[in-house]
Amino acid sequence: MAPNDSAETNGEATGTVVGRRKAARYIVPVAVAGVAAATIGLVPALASSGDPELPKITAQELIEKIAASDEEQLSGTVKVSTDLGIPSLGGLADSFAQGATGTDKGNGASSAAPEAKLMELASGTHTLRVAADGPDKQRLSILGEASEYSIVHNGDDVWAYDSKSNEAYHAQAEQSDRAAGKAKEHKAPGGVPATPKELAEEALAAAGDTTSVTVDGTAQVAGRDAYQLLIKPKQSGSTIGSIRVAVDAENGVPLKFTLSPSSGGKAAIDAGFTKVDFDKPDASSFAFTPPKGAKVTEAEELQAEAEKNAKADKVPEDLAALEDFKGLNVIGEGWNAVAVIDTPGGEGLAGLPTEGSGSGDVPEGAMQFLDALGDKVTGDFGSGTVFKTRLVNALVTDDGKVYVGAVTKDALVKAANTAK
Length: 420
Description:
Helix content: 10-25%
Order of helices and strands: HHHEHHEEEEEHHEEEEEEHHEEHEEEEH
Number of domains: 2
Number of strands: 18
CATH superfamily of the largest domain: Lipoprotein localisation LolA/LolB/LppX
Shape: globular
Number of helices: 11
Largest sheet: 12 strands, mixed
Strand order of the largest sheet: 7-8-9-10-11-1-2-3-4-5-6-12
Radius of gyration: 22 Å
CATH class of the largest domain: Mainly Beta
Distance between the termini: 52 Å
CATH architecture of the largest domain: Clam
């Protein structure tokens, strides 16, 4: 192993390269339950086949190498492992997606819609195939035992296809995003980070002066030599123990991303290539035509159906408003930042309508899921329930406030007490 410089940086050094320090360090959930799915990460750690000897490099230089990487073409196989300490979301994914959009199978929802399928990546282990050819062509396929789910972005079109149900979903790519250069981040179709590069960019964008960034040795991933960048919070109270990113020594592309919780044990998010090729993918990778007999649903149809249901009070306006939080009040900074949200009607979880109640469409299964995760707590703020995962926790108070962040239960209670 080469004796790499383990140079610690502060937020100023990191921010000069990444320039996105205001990126969220947590993701606010829809109806609280979304905290689990929102921490989707892709691709597990791969067994190292030896630590290569590489020239010395500082943390700052390695961050600059990531930022300067201009690889726009790649293909490969990625393995995803996510362990947030929650039950599998497979059976509830459709329910959460339908609750958020106001649709169900009887109202024209498609099993191929990304909102439902990508949520399944929030737990378990998955094998993916990925390909990219510039900002306008990407493909992500989730491989099942006897089925495959694919999302294909090619120019103005985004297609998704579920071979198990023989259903397809079609949407128009956002012209404004491509014009603004956002597609150059190589986000997978559907908006979910699909490669270690995307996950690494999110982590570096969130780094500030509360963060230690060092080079911690070398590794070999998918047959390629890599440096290991280690990102750790300096503060106590975070559920995140460390983030390790294996960076291709030649081209600066992150090859593996591993997020370990402060509580110990196996990684919460472990993402890495098993195979990777930086040559131009074949054009056929981005061609898609719905198979004969496939049911095709247009995104515009789902949107129209959701708006129709909202007007019919199937999705209350205050619940629908949870989809777009703006001007959040944030307590604390860095890794200990906690967002404060007012729940609809100020009634806490008790005020959320459930199926069969006559006032809303939050699935009963989702509510049972929440109840199973909860711990009752009290403090100067009053009383409430903490919903815990290994990564993102949320405190819902009885007077209708939600405190959410990648912090421990004690840190949430402290934040709630501080707010009072």
